[in-house]
Every structure is written in structure tokens, then in C-alpha cells.
Amino acid sequence: MTDHAHGSSSHYFDISGNIVSWLRSLPKDRVVWAFTALVGATFVLVTDEAPALLGATGNSLIDTGPFIAVSILIAAYVKATGADALIAKALSGRQESAVLTAAVFGALSPFCSCGVVPLIAALLAAGVPLAPVMAFWLASPVIDPEMLVLTWGVLGPEMAIAKTLSAIGLGLLGGLSVMVLQRAGKLSDVLRDGVARKSSCGSRPASASQGCGPAKDDTPRWAFWREGNRRVQFVEETGTMGWFLVKWLSLAFLIEAMMIAWVPMDQIAGGLSDLGPFAVPAAAAVGVPAYLNGYAAIPLVRGLMEVGLQPGAALAFMVAGGVTCIPAAVAVKALVKMPVFLMYLVIAAVGSVAAGLLYSLYWTL
Predict the structure, then answer these.
(1) pLDDT grade, residue 151 (50/70/90)?
(2) Which H or E run contains 54?
(3) pLDDT-based confidence at 54, cuts 50/70/90?
(4) What stretch of H or E contains 63?
(5) Could you give the CA distance from residue 351 to residue 365 in angstroms, rounded to a whole number?
(6) What SS3 string covers 140-209?
(7) Is the residue at 7 inside a domain?
(8) Is position 1 within any domain?
(9) The dihedral of CA 267, 270, 274, 278: what is its sign?
(10) Does any domain span residue 225?
């Protein structure tokens, strides 16, 4: 019988072998241990509240599940077809143009801050330069088409337009900042080692120009299911990235649930209206822990504006919160090394304050 009939061992997904490998990795997984320790401490210290906290964590995972699943499947499809090399080539041309394109696409894309993680991992592993990836990553959590419509309806067209422009501006700030640093010889290796291996690119720096798809040429195989090795890669990428996101987001949503339960966010946010000229930077700082998600923040911001919060501070709150809320920040930290993560936070802080100040200036004219 021919090799085609049997297929080589690399053309089939070894379920038992992968499960065994996954189980062996659990005792060394710090994320799993951290989640387990928090759950254990919750049941010991606040036994009555533990079920509610776990329920909130589960509900958050369920609510974001469809978006995460679609994002994972898209990223796995991109990887299995070899389209990641094509995208890498498209975004590896003139950096300024690539950054602008990525910032605009990020602001208008339907990806949530967590759902974009699989695509970001695939692009970085494929060799897409960090500058356009950072532009996309910063712009994407701030707004999407549905959030734009909702913001327009609840807070008005000016706030909706300002938020969209802020997302694009934040992406440009991040992308251009990365370009400057990389031209100075910094940020040459950005992905955490484990993530690079999972993305089928070994430990190659993400600044490499070539792709790393399964084929030797750059021609995508759109009907990847016709080739055994590509089917294997699709399944493995889906499983690996799925588990990667589930464990990190479970930890993030548990921490978020604890903060919502124990920290009086409404009172903290309400105090912003009394800060006068310091309201914008204070709102950006408060936006980090107080921001739940883009949709929940809209009615909260409307209530704060009704009691005197200035529009610039409201915008800074939404922009900073969208980029640095716990699930988004944890997702970034899970993928990249500490210098890139710190840079992400600094750009988010500076950009959100700048957006708020510019919007305040607009209202004074």
C-alpha cells in the first residue's frame, strides 16, 4: 500500500500524544498555578463569595467565547494556509504606510481586545514587523464598528468620532514609537520564547522578514484541508492557542471579578468630576482598573458626564480603559517580553491623556 494511502505520521494529529504532552506541562504552568492559588484562597478567606466570583469568571469566558473562537479559527486558518507569509510581506514594506494601514484597520476591525491575540501571535511569528502590529494592537481594543454605533447613540456623534480618531492616533503613536526604537537597535526580539515555539517559528526574532509557513514557497494553499500536514497544523494551532487563551483569560477574568466585587469603582470614578484640570490624567489612571468592557463603560461614562465629568476626561477614561483593562493587559503580557509590555502600557497612558487633553481643547474653542 502506498504512502499516500496510509499517509505519513506527520499528516495525522496524534490526539493521545498531544493530551499526554499537555498533561505533563500542567505542573510547570505558572498561569494554572496562579489561577488555582487564587481560587483556593478565595474559598478559604471568603467562602460565601467564592461561587459568585467563579460564576462571574465563567460568564465572562462564555460572553467572549464566540469572539475568541472565531479569532482562533481565523488565526489557525491563516497559519495552515500559509497566508501569514503573505500578510507579513504586505506589512513589511514601507513602515510608515504599514503603520497607518494597521492603525486604521485596527480601529475599524470587529476584534475585541482578547480576540485579536491569536491573530497578533500569528503575525508576529510570521515575521510582521512590530511597528504595524503594535499600531493594530493599540487601536483595536478602543473601538469597533458595533461600539462606534452604540457610542454614537448614547454619547453622541462627537464622542464617537473622537473615540475613533483617538484609536487611530493611539495606533500611530505606538507604531511610530516602535519604529524609532527599532532603528536605534532596540526591540529586536519581542515574543516570549514559549509563544514563539507554539507559533511554529522556533525562537526566531519577530523582526525577521521572511514568513514561516509550512510550504517552501509563499503561495497560500486556501483549501488547506486537502493536504495532511496543513490539516495537522490547523488542528494543533487551534488547540494550542485555544488553551493558551483559556488559561490566561480565566486568570484575568477572575482578577477582574475580584476587583469589581471589592473595589468601589463607581465611587472612585465619580470623584473625577471634582478634580478640575487634573481630571483628564486622573480619568486615564482610573480607567485601568475601573473599566469593565467597552459596552459597559458607555452607560457608566454617560452617568459620570451627567454629574459633571468633562468630555475630555470621559474620553481619556474610555481610551485608557479599553487598552489597559485587565483582560487586554494580561493578553499582551502573555505574548510579549517585559520591555514590549511596558512600552504598550506607557503608550496607552500617554496616548489616552493626549486624546483627552486635545478633546478638552476642542470643547473650549
Answers:
(1) confident
(2) helix 50-81
(3) very high
(4) helix 50-81
(5) 21
(6) CCCCCHHHHHHHHHHHCHHHHHHHHHHHHHHHHHHHHHHHHHHHCCCCCCCECHHHHHHCCCCCCCCCCC
(7) no
(8) no
(9) positive
(10) yes
Give the pLDDT score at 365. Answer: 75
The residue that leads in pLDDT, 320 or 294, is 320
pTM over 0.90: no
Measure the CA–CA gap between 108 and 153, rounded to whole angstroms: 17
Contact in structure between 119 and 126 (CB atoms under 8 Å): no
**For all residues of the chain together, what is the average pLDDT?**
76
Which residues constitute the domain of residue 141?
23-364
- pLDDT the model gives residue 293: 61
Amino acid at 131: A
Q: Exposed e or buried b for every residue in 275-309, given b needs 16+ CB within 10 A?
A: eeeebbbbbbbbbbbbbbbbeebbebbbebbeeeb
Q: With beta carbons less than 8 A apart as the criterion, state whether 86 and 218 touch.
A: yes
6 inside domain:
no
Whether 108 and 180 have beta carbons less than 8 Å apart is answered as no
Nearest to 114 by CA among 287, 333, 286: 333
Q: Is the pLDDT of residue 56 over 60?
A: yes
Q: Is 21 exposed, middle or buried (0-12, 13-18, 19+ CB in 10 A)?
A: exposed
Domain count, the chain: 1
Return the closest-CA partner of residue 170 out of 321, 305, 57. 321
Q: The C-alpha cell of 74 is what?
A: 481565523
